UniProtKB/TrEMBL annotation:
The chain crosses the membrane at residues 26-47, 122-141, 147-176, 237-257. The lineage of its organism: Bacteria, Bacillati, Bacillota, Bacilli, Bacillales. It comes from Paenibacillus barcinonensis. It comes from the Bacteria. PANTHER family: SLR1174 PROTEIN, SLR1174 PROTEIN-RELATED. Keywords: Membrane, Transmembrane, Transmembrane helix. The keyword Kinase does not apply. Pfam families: ABC2_membrane_6. InterPro entries: ABC-2_transporter-like (IPR010390). This is ABC-2 family transporter protein.
Length: 269
Protein backbone atom coordinates (compact mmCIF):
# COMPACT_ATOMS: atom_id res chain seq x y z
CA UNK A 1 0.00 0.00 0.00
CA UNK A 2 2.79 2.41 0.97
CA UNK A 3 4.66 1.60 -2.25
CA UNK A 4 1.57 2.44 -4.32
CA UNK A 5 1.16 5.79 -2.56
CA UNK A 6 4.85 6.47 -3.15
CA UNK A 7 4.39 5.86 -6.89
CA UNK A 8 1.57 8.40 -7.19
CA UNK A 9 3.49 10.85 -5.02
CA UNK A 10 6.43 10.53 -7.39
CA UNK A 11 4.15 11.09 -10.38
CA UNK A 12 2.85 14.30 -8.77
CA UNK A 13 6.44 15.45 -8.19
CA UNK A 14 7.32 14.75 -11.83
CA UNK A 15 4.27 16.72 -12.96
CA UNK A 16 5.27 19.62 -10.70
CA UNK A 17 8.82 19.61 -12.07
CA UNK A 18 7.51 19.51 -15.61
CA UNK A 19 5.19 22.43 -14.86
CA UNK A 20 7.90 24.71 -13.47
CA UNK A 21 10.25 23.87 -16.35
CA UNK A 22 8.03 25.84 -18.77
CA UNK A 23 8.80 29.23 -17.26
CA UNK A 24 7.62 31.19 -20.29
CA UNK A 25 4.17 29.57 -20.12
CA UNK A 26 3.95 30.28 -16.39
CA UNK A 27 4.67 33.97 -16.74
CA UNK A 28 2.49 34.23 -19.84
CA UNK A 29 -0.44 32.80 -17.86
CA UNK A 30 0.30 35.24 -15.03
CA UNK A 31 0.33 38.16 -17.46
CA UNK A 32 -2.93 37.03 -19.07
CA UNK A 33 -4.60 36.68 -15.64
CA UNK A 34 -3.46 40.19 -14.66
CA UNK A 35 -4.65 41.64 -17.96
CA UNK A 36 -8.06 39.95 -17.71
CA UNK A 37 -8.59 41.19 -14.16
CA UNK A 38 -7.51 44.70 -15.09
CA UNK A 39 -9.94 44.75 -18.02
CA UNK A 40 -12.80 43.42 -15.89
CA UNK A 41 -12.12 46.05 -13.24
CA UNK A 42 -12.28 48.80 -15.86
CA UNK A 43 -15.55 47.39 -17.20
CA UNK A 44 -17.19 47.16 -13.78
CA UNK A 45 -16.03 50.64 -12.82
CA UNK A 46 -17.56 51.95 -16.04
CA UNK A 47 -20.84 50.13 -15.35
CA UNK A 48 -21.03 51.42 -11.80
CA UNK A 49 -20.38 54.96 -13.00
CA UNK A 50 -23.54 54.94 -15.11
CA UNK A 51 -26.34 57.05 -13.65
CA UNK A 52 -28.99 54.54 -14.65
CA UNK A 53 -27.46 51.73 -12.57
CA UNK A 54 -29.84 48.87 -11.89
CA UNK A 55 -31.13 47.93 -8.46
CA UNK A 56 -28.92 44.84 -8.48
CA UNK A 57 -25.85 46.97 -9.11
CA UNK A 58 -26.81 49.33 -6.33
CA UNK A 59 -27.28 46.43 -3.91
CA UNK A 60 -23.73 45.16 -4.52
CA UNK A 61 -21.07 47.82 -3.97
CA UNK A 62 -18.28 48.43 -6.44
CA UNK A 63 -15.77 47.44 -3.76
CA UNK A 64 -17.45 44.05 -3.34
CA UNK A 65 -17.60 43.57 -7.09
CA UNK A 66 -13.88 44.24 -7.51
CA UNK A 67 -13.10 41.80 -4.72
CA UNK A 68 -15.32 39.27 -6.50
CA UNK A 69 -13.36 39.69 -9.75
CA UNK A 70 -10.02 39.19 -8.01
CA UNK A 71 -11.14 36.13 -6.04
CA UNK A 72 -12.67 34.60 -9.19
CA UNK A 73 -9.36 35.00 -11.00
CA UNK A 74 -7.44 33.32 -8.18
CA UNK A 75 -9.95 30.47 -7.93
CA UNK A 76 -9.73 29.94 -11.68
CA UNK A 77 -6.02 29.16 -11.34
CA UNK A 78 -6.60 26.75 -8.47
CA UNK A 79 -9.74 25.07 -9.81
CA UNK A 80 -8.83 24.64 -13.48
CA UNK A 81 -8.11 21.01 -14.40
CA UNK A 82 -7.38 19.52 -17.82
CA UNK A 83 -7.42 15.72 -17.65
CA UNK A 84 -9.64 15.74 -20.74
CA UNK A 85 -6.81 16.48 -23.18
CA UNK A 86 -4.68 13.54 -22.09
CA UNK A 87 -7.57 11.10 -21.85
CA UNK A 88 -9.02 12.02 -25.25
CA UNK A 89 -5.60 11.85 -26.90
CA UNK A 90 -4.83 8.43 -25.41
CA UNK A 91 -8.18 7.05 -26.54
CA UNK A 92 -7.93 8.60 -30.00
CA UNK A 93 -4.44 7.21 -30.63
CA UNK A 94 -5.14 3.86 -29.03
CA UNK A 95 -2.42 4.31 -26.41
CA UNK A 96 -5.08 3.86 -23.75
CA UNK A 97 -4.64 0.10 -24.27
CA UNK A 98 -1.00 0.39 -23.17
CA UNK A 99 -1.96 2.60 -20.21
CA UNK A 100 -4.36 -0.09 -18.98
CA UNK A 101 -1.55 -2.66 -18.96
CA UNK A 102 0.75 -0.55 -16.81
CA UNK A 103 1.22 -1.53 -13.13
CA UNK A 104 -0.71 1.45 -11.76
CA UNK A 105 -4.24 2.79 -11.85
CA UNK A 106 -4.79 4.95 -14.94
CA UNK A 107 -7.28 7.25 -13.20
CA UNK A 108 -5.03 7.81 -10.17
CA UNK A 109 -2.16 8.47 -12.57
CA UNK A 110 -4.08 11.31 -14.23
CA UNK A 111 -5.23 12.66 -10.86
CA UNK A 112 -1.66 12.65 -9.52
CA UNK A 113 -0.41 14.55 -12.55
CA UNK A 114 -3.13 17.17 -12.06
CA UNK A 115 -2.22 17.52 -8.37
CA UNK A 116 1.39 18.27 -9.37
CA UNK A 117 0.27 21.01 -11.73
CA UNK A 118 -2.01 22.55 -9.12
CA UNK A 119 0.78 22.66 -6.56
CA UNK A 120 2.88 24.51 -9.13
CA UNK A 121 0.12 27.05 -9.73
CA UNK A 122 -0.49 27.57 -6.00
CA UNK A 123 3.14 28.13 -5.04
CA UNK A 124 4.30 30.05 -8.12
CA UNK A 125 1.44 31.85 -9.83
CA UNK A 126 -0.79 32.64 -6.85
CA UNK A 127 1.82 34.57 -4.76
CA UNK A 128 2.74 36.82 -7.71
CA UNK A 129 -0.90 37.50 -8.51
CA UNK A 130 -1.71 38.21 -4.86
CA UNK A 131 0.94 40.95 -4.78
CA UNK A 132 -0.54 42.49 -7.94
CA UNK A 133 -4.15 42.23 -6.76
CA UNK A 134 -3.44 43.63 -3.30
CA UNK A 135 -1.85 46.64 -4.98
CA UNK A 136 -5.01 47.47 -6.95
CA UNK A 137 -7.64 46.74 -4.28
CA UNK A 138 -8.41 49.54 -1.86
CA UNK A 139 -9.89 47.10 0.67
CA UNK A 140 -9.80 43.36 1.24
CA UNK A 141 -12.84 41.28 2.25
CA UNK A 142 -13.45 42.35 5.83
CA UNK A 143 -15.97 39.74 6.95
CA UNK A 144 -14.86 36.89 9.17
CA UNK A 145 -14.99 33.54 7.42
CA UNK A 146 -15.01 29.97 8.63
CA UNK A 147 -11.61 28.75 7.41
CA UNK A 148 -12.51 25.07 7.63
CA UNK A 149 -15.76 25.41 5.68
CA UNK A 150 -14.07 27.69 3.16
CA UNK A 151 -11.37 25.10 2.47
CA UNK A 152 -14.01 22.37 2.18
CA UNK A 153 -16.08 24.43 -0.27
CA UNK A 154 -13.02 25.23 -2.41
CA UNK A 155 -11.84 21.60 -2.36
CA UNK A 156 -15.28 20.40 -3.44
CA UNK A 157 -15.31 22.99 -6.22
CA UNK A 158 -11.95 21.66 -7.47
CA UNK A 159 -13.28 18.09 -7.43
CA UNK A 160 -16.50 19.01 -9.26
CA UNK A 161 -14.64 20.84 -12.02
CA UNK A 162 -12.14 18.00 -12.33
CA UNK A 163 -14.88 15.36 -12.59
CA UNK A 164 -16.77 17.32 -15.26
CA UNK A 165 -13.61 17.63 -17.34
CA UNK A 166 -12.75 13.98 -16.72
CA UNK A 167 -16.21 12.79 -17.76
CA UNK A 168 -16.04 14.73 -21.03
CA UNK A 169 -12.68 13.09 -21.68
CA UNK A 170 -14.22 9.64 -21.21
CA UNK A 171 -16.80 10.45 -23.88
CA UNK A 172 -13.95 10.00 -26.37
CA UNK A 173 -14.62 6.27 -26.05
CA UNK A 174 -17.73 6.93 -28.12
CA UNK A 175 -17.15 10.24 -29.95
CA UNK A 176 -13.37 10.16 -30.54
CA UNK A 177 -13.25 13.95 -30.95
CA UNK A 178 -14.64 15.65 -27.86
CA UNK A 179 -13.21 19.17 -28.23
CA UNK A 180 -16.56 20.65 -29.38
CA UNK A 181 -18.18 19.32 -26.19
CA UNK A 182 -15.23 20.66 -24.20
CA UNK A 183 -15.66 24.15 -25.67
CA UNK A 184 -19.41 24.08 -25.03
CA UNK A 185 -19.02 22.89 -21.44
CA UNK A 186 -16.29 25.44 -20.66
CA UNK A 187 -18.50 28.23 -21.99
CA UNK A 188 -21.46 27.02 -19.92
CA UNK A 189 -19.31 26.79 -16.81
CA UNK A 190 -17.87 30.28 -17.31
CA UNK A 191 -21.34 31.73 -17.84
CA UNK A 192 -23.51 29.82 -15.36
CA UNK A 193 -20.92 29.39 -12.60
CA UNK A 194 -20.64 33.12 -12.01
CA UNK A 195 -17.01 33.14 -13.09
CA UNK A 196 -17.59 35.95 -15.57
CA UNK A 197 -20.76 37.57 -14.23
CA UNK A 198 -22.06 36.97 -10.68
CA UNK A 199 -25.47 35.40 -10.42
CA UNK A 200 -26.58 38.58 -8.61
CA UNK A 201 -26.97 40.22 -12.01
CA UNK A 202 -28.65 37.33 -13.85
CA UNK A 203 -32.19 37.79 -15.20
CA UNK A 204 -34.75 35.79 -13.24
CA UNK A 205 -35.17 32.93 -15.72
CA UNK A 206 -31.44 32.43 -16.25
CA UNK A 207 -30.88 32.63 -12.50
CA UNK A 208 -33.34 29.78 -11.95
CA UNK A 209 -31.48 27.65 -14.48
CA UNK A 210 -28.14 28.43 -12.81
CA UNK A 211 -29.55 27.48 -9.40
CA UNK A 212 -30.49 24.00 -10.65
CA UNK A 213 -27.17 23.22 -12.32
CA UNK A 214 -23.97 22.41 -10.37
CA UNK A 215 -21.83 25.11 -12.00
CA UNK A 216 -22.54 27.80 -9.41
CA UNK A 217 -20.97 25.50 -6.81
CA UNK A 218 -17.64 25.89 -8.60
CA UNK A 219 -17.26 29.68 -8.50
CA UNK A 220 -20.24 31.73 -7.32
CA UNK A 221 -20.92 29.99 -4.02
CA UNK A 222 -17.24 29.62 -3.00
CA UNK A 223 -16.66 33.30 -3.76
CA UNK A 224 -19.70 34.26 -1.68
CA UNK A 225 -18.29 32.17 1.17
CA UNK A 226 -14.95 33.98 0.97
CA UNK A 227 -16.68 37.37 0.81
CA UNK A 228 -18.85 36.51 3.80
CA UNK A 229 -22.00 37.03 1.75
CA UNK A 230 -23.91 34.01 3.07
CA UNK A 231 -25.57 32.93 6.30
CA UNK A 232 -23.90 30.09 8.28
CA UNK A 233 -26.94 27.85 7.74
CA UNK A 234 -26.68 28.36 3.98
CA UNK A 235 -23.04 27.33 4.12
CA UNK A 236 -24.03 23.85 5.25
CA UNK A 237 -26.52 23.61 2.38
CA UNK A 238 -23.82 24.56 -0.13
CA UNK A 239 -21.45 21.89 1.19
CA UNK A 240 -24.24 19.29 1.07
CA UNK A 241 -25.11 20.24 -2.52
CA UNK A 242 -21.47 19.95 -3.51
CA UNK A 243 -21.15 16.51 -1.94
CA UNK A 244 -24.30 15.31 -3.71
CA UNK A 245 -22.99 16.48 -7.09
CA UNK A 246 -19.58 14.94 -6.41
CA UNK A 247 -21.26 11.58 -5.76
CA UNK A 248 -23.36 11.93 -8.93
CA UNK A 249 -20.33 12.73 -11.07
CA UNK A 250 -18.24 9.95 -9.51
CA UNK A 251 -21.03 7.45 -10.26
CA UNK A 252 -21.28 8.71 -13.85
CA UNK A 253 -17.49 8.55 -14.27
CA UNK A 254 -17.37 4.96 -12.99
CA UNK A 255 -20.19 3.99 -15.36
CA UNK A 256 -18.52 5.59 -18.41
CA UNK A 257 -15.11 4.12 -17.54
CA UNK A 258 -16.54 0.63 -17.02
CA UNK A 259 -18.35 0.51 -20.35
CA UNK A 260 -15.87 2.65 -22.27
CA UNK A 261 -12.91 0.37 -21.59
CA UNK A 262 -14.93 -2.53 -22.96
CA UNK A 263 -15.12 -0.96 -26.40
CA UNK A 264 -11.71 0.58 -26.98
CA UNK A 265 -11.33 1.48 -30.64
CA UNK A 266 -7.76 1.97 -31.80
CA UNK A 267 -7.53 4.84 -34.27
CA UNK A 268 -4.09 4.46 -35.81
CA UNK A 269 -0.82 3.95 -33.94
Amino acid sequence: MFMKIKVYYRLAVISFQSFISFKFNIFLNIFVSMAMVFIQILIWKALYSQEDATNATEAITLETMLQYVVISSLLNIIITSQPLQYIANQIRTGNIALDLMRPFNFNLYIFSMEIGKKIGRVFIQIPILLIFYFSILSNLPGNEINILFTLIVIMNAIIIQYLINYIIGLLAFWWIEVWPMDMLMNSLIKLLSGSWIPLWFFPEQLSKVAEILPFKLIYFDPIRVILGQIHPSELQVIVLQQIIWVMIFISLAIFLWKYGTKKIVVQGG
